[in-house]
Amino acid sequence: MFTEARLDAVVLGGGLLGCFAARHLTSYRLRCGLVEAREDVCTGISRGNSAIIYTGYDNKPNTRKARLCVQANRDFPRLCAQLGVPFARRGSLLVSYGPRGDEVVRRKYGQGLENGVEGLELLTGAQAMALEPGLAEGISSALLAPGTGVTDPWALCFAAYENARANGCQVYLHAPVTALIQEGRDWIITAGPHTLRAGAVINCCGLEAHRIQELCTAPTVRVIPGRADYLVLDQPAGPYVRHVIFAEPEEGGKGLTLVPTMEGKLLLGPSEQAGGGRPDRAVTPEGLEFLRRMAARVVPSLDLGQSIRAFGAVRPNPYYVRREGEAWVPEEGSIHSFFIGNPCPGLWSLIGIKTPGLTCASALGAMLARQAAAYLGKEALNPNFDPCRPPPPRPRELDAPARRALVQADPVYGRVICRCEDVTEGEILHAIRQGAVTLDGVKRRVGAGLGRCQGGWCMDRVLELLARETGASPWEINQDGPGSPLLVRGKDDVV
């Protein structure tokens, strides 16, 4: 349906950065909107994430990235408590197996101290093995960072989105941006069937961020997608490590990261690869072989037979560009800091926000909202802003009396649909009513289909609930957005 609206500020892109920018905008007395090209939020870069909350020792001292990372890490427990999202400080070990790795460990220890990271400790190999006896022998040194955390990145994105909506943010889905024009102090945005007029625009469009900026200005930075493969191991694999493990390879190149997730599973990755300029999420045999080879080196007893899922993630690598004739050519080497452009008054573009984007999403959103409010001359705070979002009911996390009370109040919370993850019909219905319209939209919100059988037992029931609640035909329900139908008609099927 065609609409026209006058707003103070508009956020483009419904990933982690966009949802947090929208949330923080609602803390001011502003009329704000969130525009997303697809059918739901959390469908782009944000869907593939290692779930790590970094401490900041990796970042170059005296940079915005270092400052925000350290600040955001300290604030993360409070943020997750406000939004009803799980968080745990697992701590991390950066382990070395030789002189090259030892140098990296010492350098990052020094960076961390300079950045103000608390609790860092240099360990001997014996001390590291005492903490993680499952690691391969031969560790020469290690860096312990007790502040490293893990969270559920999907839950965090949806929580920020729901909180923004609850505080008055207008949402426009199925709305790809095709025009961005400055008219005086106003921006006119054409997004799908909508025409929006606003004084400030925050561009958080991920892989498309540079294209959006170039609708109104000459190129400065472009994103060249990279990609990475990950493996997920089932819950029995969780006890192999207790900390987040970063293994520094002695021969150079990409090491291995092992993450004990909030769900008790073990995540292995990434296998960093060039993306060929395309946002390709297909898993590659080469990537999986790299993960298997590295896992055998780092955790020799790890049973890769516990693998239940492999997935590919896209990495937005930003490069400065220069003009050569009619073409724009990337400069040598990607940009390692946060690139936040302000090419025109009232327009901010986040292009290529990589690690630690999850850690810093809320801090970046707060910073941009503050700048937009100041630019608009509307810095008055919203007295009705509520930073808290009550967590949805999760029966599996309740004790027996509380679970019985919930089921008595609403019996749908007593009907288990996903047996692997103990997800009930009530949770799935809540996810659909919060905006899930695809099977993966439900999965990312409540975990149905994430377990050992990967949806084998529950997919048909989730499909049935999606069709019933959305009013769509089962033939119209997609796995993950347009072009991914769950059911395909055969020649004998009745239409």
Question: What do you see in this structure?
Answer:
The chain starts with a strand and ends in a 25-residue tail after the last helix. The chain has helices at 16-25, 64-83, 99-115, 125-131, 153-166, 209-213, 285-298, 357-376, 400-409, 425-433, 439-446, 459-470, and strands at 3-6, 9-12, 32-35, 52-53, 87-88, 92-96, 121-124, 141-145, 149-151, 170-172, 177-183, 186-191, 194-198, 200-203, 221-233, 244-248, 256-260, 266-274, 307-324, 327-330, 339-344, 347-351, 416-418, 423-424. By secondary structure, the protein is α+β, with helices and mostly antiparallel strands. The strands form 5 sheets. Strands 7-8-6-16-17-18-15-19-20 form a 9-stranded mixed β-sheet, with helices on both faces. The protein folds into 3 domains: 3-47 and 154-222 and 318-376, 3-Layer(bba) Sandwich (FAD/NAD(P)-binding domain), CATH 3.50.50; 87-149 and 224-315, D-Amino Acid Oxidase, Chain A, domain 2, CATH 3.30.9; 395-476, BFD-like [2Fe-2S]-binding domain (Arc Repressor Mutant, subunit A, Orthogonal Bundle). It has 12 helices and 24 strands.
